[in-house]
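RECORD TYPE: protein structure
NAME: Water stress and hypersensitive response domain-containing protein
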Amino acid sequence: MNVIELGLQNKMVVYGAIVGMFALMGVIVWYASLDNPELEQVEIKLSNVEILDVNKIENTAKLQVTFLVKNPSEKTFTVPLIGYKLFADGQLLGSGQYSTEDVSMPGRAVFYSEAEIPLKNIFVLNKSNVNSETYQAILDGNITSFTAEGVITTETSWSMIEKEFKTST
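PREDICTED:
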């Protein structure tokens, strides 16, 4: 073999390795997407909103928002994030977020098949963000229903999906 043939052969090996790497990446992405239909089956329900603390000096109230998350599928997953807007009798109170993104997957709540786990989040309500009648109605317990709408993120070690939801108490 001469030098030109060796150079051409080396280029073909490099090109073959690059094509093989892209093919392997494609297989990994395809394999990961197989989880998506099962992850999209996640069910979320706003189960409770309760007052934890009222600060009359700062005019704030800490509310504990509890979501009941259920896994009806056969695929085990975790929930790293729930972003939501909270409404009281149709009036927007503000936005909240349940997050375990800073916790590694093994440290999060694991949703096995048919598991149903309550996930709790603290929502700080500022009196200045709502009208005073709504704020007082919340403190007095005179709200007929709370509604949450947003996006829940479910994740396996291979895949992650975001699903929109709307739920009421």
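COMMENT: The CA atoms of residues 13 and 19 lie 10 Å apart.
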